[in-house]
Amino acid sequence: AKTRENIKTKITKLVKGRTEIDDEFLEELEQILISADVGVQTTLDIVDKITERAKNERYASEEDLNNMLIDEIQKMLSDARDAHVVDFDAPLPSTPYVILIVGVNGVGKTTSIGKMAYNYKTAGKKVLIAAADTFRAAATEQLEIWAERAGVPIVGQRQGADPASVVFDSVSSAVSRDMDVVLVDTAGRLHNKIHLMEELSKIMRVAQKKVPDAPHEVLLVLDASTGQNAINQAKEFMKSVKVTGLILTKLDGTAKGGVVIGISRELNIPVKYIGVGEKIEDLQIFDRQKFIEALLK
Amino acid sequence: MFESLSDKLEHALKKLSGQAKINEINIGMAMRDIKRALLDADVNYKVTKNFVEQVRKQALGEEVIKSVSPAQMIVKIVHDELVKAMGGEQKDINLKTSRMPAVIMVAGLQGSGKTTFTAKLANLLKKKGRAPLLIAADVYRPAAIEQLKTLGAQIGVPVFSIEEKDALKAAKQGIEFAKQNSKNVAIVDTAGRLQIDEEMMAEAERLKRELSPEEILFVVDSMIGQEAVNTAKVFNDRLDFDGVVLTKMDGDTRGGAALSIKTVVDKPIKFLSQGEKVDDLDIFYPERMAQRILGMGDIVSFVEKA
Ligand SMILES: Nc1nc2c(ncn2[C@@H]2O[C@H](COP(=O)(O)OP(=O)(O)OP(=O)(O)O)[C@@H](O)[C@H]2O)c(=O)[nH]1
Ligand SMILES: Nc1nc2c(ncn2[C@@H]2O[C@H](COP(=O)(O)OP(=O)(O)OP(=O)(O)O)[C@@H](O)[C@H]2O)c(=O)[nH]1
Ligand SMILES: [Mg+2]
Ligand SMILES: [Mg+2]
After folding, report:
1. Which of A235, B71, B248, B289 might form a disulfide with B13, Cβ 3.0–4.6 angstroms?
2. Is A87 within 8 Å of A122 (Cβ atoms)?
3. What is the pLDDT of residue A1?
4. Alpha-carbon distance values, A149 to A77, A221, B44, B110, B176 (Å)
């Protein structure tokens, strides 16, 4: 059975039978938040706010207390700029609309591209996939399977080829074939590897040779089970490419992804999609309210 | 990003200068900073709490050595306790068996680095004079078999796979193939699975039961957060694995999962995977890991010399 002990269930337990905020209560709250990967600083800030409010506000019941807690946690998330939630069938601002997918190794970039291709295709768009991970063993073969499942064409070269050259080919091909969307898969790279991060800038420049305002979106993929390192990842990728949104993957089953609260707060990048499984239909448009609910309600 | 713990402690422990012994009052602040450092490194909350308590007990009553600052002393104590917690008897992987081949199975979450690791391990064993075979028992992930074949070709190690989507069959036939072809180690790559996925966890159990591997390794991404404990616990409950492989250690994660997992399941960390190339494999040193978790440099050797 899938157990779902999220922040909310734990908070409900915490406030049960209590109408007072004492040290023990605050420590348990701290434990709940940190155990959800919310991070120390964000947790301390939430705990401080609660302590402050407890001094100044009247709260009479368990429920008041509960609401106060949820409210403060929620505020941390809502501070972030809203992702303009655009469905796959919305008209594109320009075509070909180039989307670059980046992230560290194994987070789910290629799988997410397969899912996005399927969604755009289903929405009636002409999609092309660019296999610009020329590094990892069988990366192109993996993407070919996804392209086939989604029923869209793919442009690639042999393993070891220059990824920027694959991007150039793909974007050129998309222009001449009148494609709507180009999804660019890139090799996983750890954000502390300078030469690999520079490669991304090069990919961007090359895409711009054919489509001057490309890429229209740069989506950073984060694995929901990642801890505080996710914040480093986001910070470092933002230095090399203009990250426009996040895809949070592997959210199936457990209430993970608390690190997004810290990221929202520190970095202000909206989450755009979430991955909830390994199948082609397991991608959802991020709905902040729903996410908060899954995490908190 | 990683403000050094010892800098912070210097500040917190100013008061301690000139005092002869560490006592309850003067280490309170320091313990808070240590707790914070561990939590920042993604060490599990409960593990952190117990650990800090341990350190506090250890530090109480210690004489303050004149030539080093109290902060440096405390850091040294924390470090030594960390090493103790993560260390213990370092065990090699077990390849001793009366049958042929010895079987090694890997398991872990999706994308943790299993397939890459199996190739690295095969490469290492081959260099040590073994005759390894890689068996592709991930029958789900697109191109998983292709990936293993590509890696196998890079290191000159054969890869066994079948067309049918049946992990157990693939593994069993692979082991049979190894036997017939004088391969003395069979390394079984399995599909990534979430610990809450009952069907997939049952498959892993079945693989263990039917293959009776000499060695089961749990592969975990060193960037994992607080979930590390849960994940490791469930995999261990189901598979009773023999050791842990921490991957992507070439990143800048502080890798608190190492402490959490060791504390919770008490299985040795046997390998570190530190890169995407087939040679990027290392053995685990508790000292280095301790320094990494604390985000500090050479304080320890400094105190050691004093
Ligand atoms: N459970 C689950 N697994 C996922 C999800 N997204 C991806 N995966 C799995 O995670 C693993 C890695 O996914 P990939 O798409 O290959 O990741 P990647 O970022 O392209 O990896 P590299 O190219 O090697 O850096 C695969 O086993 C996927 O099936 C998800 O939302 N849920
Ligand atoms: N930087 C770095 N990348 C690694 C390391 N180990 C694996 N990778 C990369 O991480 C990604 C996932 O590795 P895989 O070996 O495919 O992981 P897996 O656990 O087999 O994935 P699934 O089979 O999809 O569950 C690939 O891009 C690898 O190149 C490592 O130690 N360092
Ligand atoms: Mg990929
Ligand atoms: Mg694999």
Report:
1. B71
2. no
3. 27
4. 35, 21, 40, 20, 34
Ligand 1, closest atom to CA A107? 19
CA distance B251 to A229: 9
Of B36, B111, B143, the CB nearest to A145: B143
**Is A1 within 8 Å of chain B by CB?**
yes
Q: Can you tell me the distance from the alpha carbon of A200 to that of A242, in angstroms, rounded to the nearest whole number?
A: 11
3-state secondary structure of A271: strand
Residues with Cβ–ion distance below 5 A, ligand 4: B 114-115
**Can you give the pLDDT at residue B20?**
63
Residues of A numbered 124-143 whose beta carbons fall under 8 angstroms of chain B's beta carbons: which are they? 135-138, 141-142
Measured from the CA of B110, which atom of ligand 2 is nearest?
A: 25
Confidence of residue A288 (pLDDT cuts 50, 70, 90): confident
A191-197: long-range contacts, CB 8 A cutoff, minimum separation 24: A191/A104, A191/A232, A191/A233, A191/A235, A191/A236, A191/A237, A191/B251, A191/B252, A192/A232, A192/A236, A192/B250, A192/B251, A192/B252, A193/B250, A197/A236, A197/A237, A197/A239, A197/A240
Cα–Cα distance measured from residue A148 to residue A114, given in angstroms and rounded to the nearest whole number: 9
CB B303 within 8 A of CB B72: yes
**Residues A181 and A92: beta-carbon distance below 8 Å:** yes
Of B143, B198, B226, the CB nearest to A142: B143
> What span, in angstroms and rounded, lies between the C-alpha atoms of A177 and B249?
43
Average pLDDT (A150-170) is 96
| Distant-in-sequence, close-in-space partners of A214: CB < 8 Å, separation ≥ 6 | A96, A98, A171, A182, A204, A207, A208
pLDDT at position B134: 98
Percentage of chain A exceeding pLDDT 70: 93
Mean pLDDT, 10 residues at a time, chain B of 306 residues: 60 64 76 90 95 90 73 84 86 87 98 98 97 98 98 98 97 98 97 96 98 98 95 98 97 94 96 95 92 70 53
For the segment A242-258, the average pLDDT, to the nearest whole number, is 86
Q: How far is CA A6 from the centre of its chain?
A: 19
Determine the pLDDT at residue B167.
Answer: 98
ipTM: 0.94
Q: Does B92 touch chain A (CB under 8 A)?
A: no
pLDDT of residue A196: 96
d(CA A52, CA A163): 53
**Cross-chain CB nearest to A253 (options B42, B142, B196):** B196
pLDDT at A3 over 50: no
